[in-house]
Design a protein that fits this description.
Length: 121
């Protein structure tokens, strides 16, 4: 499995709920349009800051509001997806939509290598 993780910060002035509502009702449609057939799984996880009991004097810091996971069968599928997006004439529509609810200067993408210690796969 090949996974891309994207950390997303909401646009200043939006509440967490407004950010989530926009993502789930409007922006998710771009994923439905562009991800198949390349992506096998598309997950959005909304972060809820929590205090760390190991550092009680440190307040929770909401650096990001969502963690998005894009799962691909392998590196070839990921590369095919990247090429397909780059070749889309209307990819600017995705960027314009992201600018409505994301702080695009604070969105970070990572390929991740997973190692499972225990539990169901």
């Amino acid at each position: 499995m090949y996974k891309l993780v994207v950390l997303v910060k909401r646009k200043p002035g939006l509440t967490r709920q407004q950010f989530k509502d926009y993502f789930e009702t409007k922006h998710v449609k771009f994923g439905e349009r562009y991800l198949p057939p390349y992506c096998t799984k598309y997950i959005r996880r909304y972060l809820i800051p929590q205090s760390n009991p190991m550092t009680p004097n440190q307040p929770p810091h909401p650096d990001f509001d969502a963690l998005v996971e894009l799962w691909f069968a392998d590196e070839e599928q990921f590369k095919a997806f990247q090429a397909s997006v780059a070749g889309e004439a209307d990819v600017h529509l995705v960027v314009e939509d992201e600018e409505r609810f994301q702080d695009r200067n604070n969105v970070y993408r990572y390929l991740v290598e997973e190692h499972q210690s225990w539990g169901p796969e």
